[in-house]
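quick one before i forget lol
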Amino acid sequence: MSGKIITISRQFGSGGRSIGEMTAKKLGIKQYGREIIEQIAERSGFAEEYVSEQSESVKEGGLFGAFAASGLL
């Protein structure tokens, strides 16, 4: 599944984290949580708050997609 990104949108208390963990395990892919925000912020030089805000508002992959495509993740 190289080059694929699966995003699971969730709300507090919805069990989204558990669903994400189970999905990643079943598909044999790596799962990222909050640490992806930290990695992008560290590698880009942007503040974590900025990266987090952008990840919530951009379409078609946004910062995550750009970093994944560049091989930085």
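fyi The chain has four helices and no strands.
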